[in-house]
Task: inverse folding
């Protein structure tokens, strides 16, 4: 058991370091070749590379419930632990983005739910989900503000990063993402073999939370620094990415079986999104009370899902 826990923690660290390096390298390459950081920001914004890598590796190894649970657990962790913490430490309520950006992910959530009605995500369904995410990104580019915030975030990452050639950062980072995701999945499988926990719960509650741990900072720091649009853009962008694009890519690698624990994570993600969206649309902002509600929701889901 200790070995499995060590793999989980070590994999999470390696995965995070690799993802940061890969994103920084990609940004430097785009800038040096005269490409648009605006477009790259829109494509990367909301796509948590650590969580995506873990989901794809799990799918490639045939651990499809872990892959699905990881994708949904990323959303649950972000909307509860990460965003809830950001709301609690914020100096003032966090302003809502435009209504379109709040409501647009509802379409991706609905499409994801349709594909999960038979507890399977086939390769054709995966292809549809990937196309749906591409359409979402196109609409985000038209909106513009989220992509501009993402581009600014990439600029800061590139300025703060190690002085290495961008190709080295990109290739080395992707290698670390692969290695870290493999360790993380191996740790999850080890936990699965040594406990009575379901695969979907291990993917959602353990792997999903560890792979998304850096999202705490991605939510808290922008809010504390007075740029909440970066936090809310990441929030709703991740929801769209992992209910369509990430889920679809994993299904293209290997058709996904979604067990009841993974399905519960999808329901929890939908409920948390509904709470945040309703508050933001009704009041134009979210404050500490909303933070307490989503954190309580996370705790309730953990207790419920662990018993499935």
Result:
């Amino acid at each position: 058991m200790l070995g499995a826990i060590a793999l989980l923690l070590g994999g999470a660290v390696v995965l995070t370091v690799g993802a940061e390096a890969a994103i920084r390298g990609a940004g430097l390459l785009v800038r040096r070749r005269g490409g648009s950081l605006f477009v790259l920001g829109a494509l990367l914004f909301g796509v948590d590379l650590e969580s995506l890598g873990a989901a794809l590796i799990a799918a490639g190894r045939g651990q499809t419930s872990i892959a699905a649970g990881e994708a949904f657990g990323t959303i649950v962790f972000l909307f509860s632990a990460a965003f809830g913490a950001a709301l609690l430490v914020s100096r003032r309520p966090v302003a809502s983005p435009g209504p379109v950006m709040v409501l647009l992910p509802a379409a991706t959530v609905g499409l994801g739910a349709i594909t999960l009605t038979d507890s399977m995500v086939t390769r054709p369904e995966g292809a549809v989900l990937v196309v749906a995410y591409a359409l979402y990104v196109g609409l985000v580019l038209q909106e513009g503000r989220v992509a501009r915030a993402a581009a600014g975030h990439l600029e800061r990452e590139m300025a703060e990063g190690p002085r290495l050639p961008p190709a080295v950062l990109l290739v080395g980072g992707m290698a670390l993402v692969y290695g870290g995701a493999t360790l993380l999945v191996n740790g999850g499988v080890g936990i699965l073999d040594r406990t009575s926990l379901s695969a979907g719960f291990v993917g959602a509650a353990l792997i999903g939370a560890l792979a998304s741990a850096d999202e705490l900072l991605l939510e808290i720091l922008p809010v504390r620094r007075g740029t909440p649009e970066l936090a809310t853009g990441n929030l709703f962008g991740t929801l769209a990415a992992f209910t369509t694009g990430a889920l679809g890519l994993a299904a293209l690698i290997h058709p996904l079986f979604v067990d009841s624990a993974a399905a519960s994570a999808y329901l929890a993600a939908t409920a948390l999104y509904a709470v945040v969206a309703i508050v933001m649309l009704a009041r134009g902002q979210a404050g500490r009370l909303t933070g307490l509600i989503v954190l309580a929701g996370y705790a309730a889901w953990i207790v419920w899902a662990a018993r499935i």
The beta strands are 94-95, 120-121, 256-257, 285-286. The longest strand covers residues 94-95.
